[in-house]
Design goal:
- The structure is a single chain.
- With about 750 residues, the protein is an alpha+beta fold.
- Among the domains are: about 25-115, Arc Repressor Mutant, subunit A (Orthogonal Bundle); about 120-230, no CATH class; about 270-405, no CATH class; about 605-750, no CATH class.
- The strands form three sheets. The chain has an eight-stranded mixed sheet with strand order 10-17-16-15-11-12-14-13.
- Helix 25 (about 665-685) runs parallel beside helix 29 (about 740-750).
- The radius of gyration is 51 Å and the shape is elongated.
- The protein starts with a strand and ends with a helix.
- About 25% of the residues are buried.
Length: about 750
Amino acid sequence: MLFDKIEILYEKYFLPIKIKFSESRKPTFIEFLVLSIILDYKNTSETLKNILENEFEIKNQVLFEKALRDLINFQIIQFKELTLTIGETNTNIPIGSFVIKEEVKKTFNNDDFIISNNNKFYDIKYFYDPIQNDSKAIKDIDWLKKIPKAKLSYKIKNTFLNKEYFNKNLMIEKTLQFFNNNSDIIGLKPKILDIVTSEQQEIKDFNLLNKLIKKDQIAIETCLEINNDGDYKLLIENDSLQLYIEKNQELKKEFVKDILKQYKSSLENIFSVENNLPSSENFFYEVDLISNININSNWNLLLINDQHIYSQADFFKNKELTRNIEFVIFYNSKRNSNEVSFIDNKIIIYINNLNNDFLNSTTFTYISSDNKIKSFLISNFLLDGMNIKFPVTYLAKVRELNVINIFEMFLKEIKLALNKNLFSKNFSIVKLYLKVLERFGQINLIKDVFTIYIKETINEPNYFNELKLYLKNNNLQSLLKLFKDVSNEAIMDSLNDYDDDNKLNIIEKLNINSKTEILKLINALKWSEEIQTILRLNKYLEKKYIDGWLINIANSINVLLNYFYKDQRENLFDTSLFSNSSSYIEHTKLLNELATMNNYLYKKNFIIVEELYNKFITNFIKLLNTYSTNNDYLIVYSKVLKEFYQTLYEYQSNIFSNMDTNEINYKVFYLAINYVSKLENKLLVHNSNDKKLPIELFMFYLKNITNNMELKNTISNNLEKIELALKLIFGVKNNYSAEDLNKLKDKLGD
């Protein structure tokens, strides 16, 4: 067992003193410049201020004024007799008024550049260390007064002050050592002239000095190692202190006792400590300190036997024991069962008596994220020879421990408490319960809770919205994902018995913004094929930036076409109703064109019909080629076009039956019919066309049902030709020339 971070304190004795000394040193650059100007500048009536400004362009002369003042105070520079300086700064006095000491002049002439000061004082402290039985002169202390983050502390008292170390000769010797070691501060080869107290009293009578001697604390870090057999030793980071204590065994014992009492006292308000020696069958023999438990970074669940705890509040003050811990469960709790709280970024839960011998025999158990277990019992350890007990930990011999099975009943109770708080919208508590279930891997249980919650509150969408928003705003991503995973199915199960309007009333209020989730939900629900439902549904999708017409949501395009089939009025559709959907615009625009064409056909205005057909068939084939359509759509379109084609074909046949077969237009007409017939026969090999689809629809019908790439290519390669052929049959009739006929033969064949 290792008690680390112990501080041993004791006091050093010190006397504040003043050192009167003389020094020789190199001048600073500014002092050197001032002295050089006074020595060498020819015009002695000029002031230092003007010389610095005119010769060196130095405007800010504060440092030069100070340097000159110091040189005067050090008596390196003196004033000539009868020099009047009242009201003048020294730099405003002519340089001829100054006299430099002869010895300084000599050093400058010899290029040694040395200045000296005979009346200088320096304040230091003279320390006596009773542990080292030695003294030292220092300016500032260079030791710690307290050990940072010390766990335990012991102070050595009644140290002896040796007056022999406070004689003047020794103090001068120690001071000179200090000066020699600090030439950068003091200067070169200082000569000590005298030593006095800080009150400038003479140093000679110790009885007088003793009243002025003060104390300053020093802290030294140490460790105490105790073995299972009761042996102990100190590991001190100071050889003198180590030797001092080893020579004084009574002090050593007193130190150990005091440290153990402190350690025991720090824990006795937290733990109810067992006195019995635990069985070797269940626990290892080796013991360790509670503070030495190594908390692994992946230990996130802590189980605590509440019967072994006096104060939960004090327990949580020990940050080391709960480092990295996210969940704390007090079992055998004296509190209400299943109470949950959030303390110090940890979820705390209290549960009733636990029927598990292993956990009941231990004090606390750490469980890692992968459910590895480390369990400890806190019990007293007797240190032989001192008759003192102190709490230690015994590591349990962990057998198989199925945490889920042990807490099965608890998890069921958690589910009930979770449901209660969910429906009360007490989401801050809900979060804690959910995270506990998540920690125990109860994903399916969480999904069940979410599913029930959604189903039972479906008529009040704010329940759904508020929980989802809470999960999102609190960055509970994994729980939010689980909520989303069950949302669609739960909503679908709840809404399928509702009519379309009520479905949409609820969906429009639900806070679902993911396009993927919205489409999953809409596609999973059953929808009637009422045009008003489809229009409203697509309006909802439009607000979510989804083009439902483009993806034919809920068979929207088919419903649109069926609606037209039943009521083929002109301008049946407002093409601007869904201005952001090119699919809706193109489909409705084409149907409106078809309605107009039918109207002229009914009026037997075939010339206009032919003109309109030319435009229609181009747009029709382009639409079929651009937008994905299912075969049901093609079949309904076939029904829509059936009467139109029959009527128009009869009209065209009557015209051409009365025409001379040698006429170019006759040949063009039958060239187109022959092309259509040949292509149709070619396609009928793959399908009988029992639906009697017009050729252009039949081509796309086949394209939808076949995997034959050759057939798909044949269809794609003939789309422009079939458009041309249909225009020649049903569209505008031009007066074709023989050259036109040849060109058409090149395109359509003979």
